[in-house]
Amino acid sequence: MRYLPNADADRRQMLKSIGRESIDELFSDIPEEVLAKFEPLGLAPRSELEVLGELTRWAEASDAAKRVSLLGGGIYDHYVPRIVGHILGRSEFYTAYTPYQPEISQGTLTAMFEFQTLVCELTGMEIANASMYDGATALAEAVLMADRIRKRRRVAVAANLLPQFRRVLATYAWAAGIELVDVPFDASGRCAWDRAPHDVSGLVVQSPNAFGVIESLGGLKAALGDTLLIVVTYPLALGLLEPPGAFGADIVVGEGQSLGLPMGFGGPLLGLFATKGEYLRQLPGRVVGRTVDADGKPGYTMAAQTREQHIRRERATSNICTNSALCALAATVYLVSIGADGLRQVAELNLAKAHYLADGIGRLKGVRLAFDGPFFNEFVVRLTEPASAARRRLADAGFLVEDPNELESLGVKNSLRIAVTEQRSRKELDRVLSVLGGKR
Prior knowledge:
This protein has 440 residues and is α/β, with parallel strands linked by helices. It has helices spanning 8-17, 23-26, 32-35, 48-61, 82-88, 91-94, 106-123, 135-150, 163-176, 220-224, 325-361, 387-396, 405-408, 426-436; strands spanning 68-69, 127-128, 154-158, 179-183, 202-207, 228-233, 251-255, 271-275, 286-292, 298-305, 367-369, 378-383, 399-400, 415-419. Helix 7 packs parallel to helix 11 and helix 8 (135-150) crosses helix 9 (163-176). The radius of gyration is 24 Å and the shape is globular.
């Protein structure tokens, strides 16, 4: 009962007080079509000691930490400067939650304001919120926002969107009654924009996309007319690439893990969300503003909180009821510590090392690049042997590569996705070439 302090008698008393006989009766108004979407997890009660023992056994059985990561698909093995962990570990940030009282939360509010500023500078947009849960839910919120603005109940989505983003988006769209229309990609790995419908609230494009290919955004917004352009970005790549705002993007979202957060077996993550100033009232989450106090000194406060748990919650734009503040602080410290020049240098290292490996792969027999579009630090290779066999050989040689089933879900068969970050050495990359070339 350590984490569930209410005993059975307590729960019965609470149910009686509100005129309900059981938990099932309490939630009986949930529609059957919603309940049908969920399956029991099949979890049995365990003691804390038993759970700890089980998790320890799983950790000891995994040798992932001993392998060199070539994993990508939205989460990457970037170097995290020591200063990030040092600042995050300070108690005034580590234990802080919601800055409801600005007079005693100036440090947290200042950090959130600086985060928003940095996101705007990165994306080329006019306003950003103080973070979302992760990139996938940020995209889902962007689609809901676009449909609130244009009200067409349909949104076009690039078919080369990361599968996990597409799955989360599909769940949100289903619940909101929004139809998603896929836009196919061509042989270059880029989306075929000429085949995109125009009677939609928004168009979702990811650049670099699920294949690592950089999309051509020039002229796209003009061709869309009043359809909102939603761009999913890889923030570290913006150290080199022109920001989406320069192409007229209406909403820019992204996964912020590459900015000072470890891979962490998939989390915690950080959702970025930026848009044009005219859409402030439709923006989900929180916005911190700078003002002056009675003495004329700078101060920070919540400028907008369109959250369902606050006053006038019936007009809330989102059910996101918190933010990844500590992860947003990590991104802020990372960007400030390396600076604009440092961000560009890290991006250049990613680009150079990925292209070094891709060039080497191009000279191997039985392996070739699946797409000829330009890429940043991630690319897809097509093999003559089964992809699972090549992945197994790489694993035996000490390299982590993603399951090819993710690419197969996008219609790309017998292929592997490889990501190369600044952490990879030439020796490691040469070893990858050796293994893919059939040597051990």
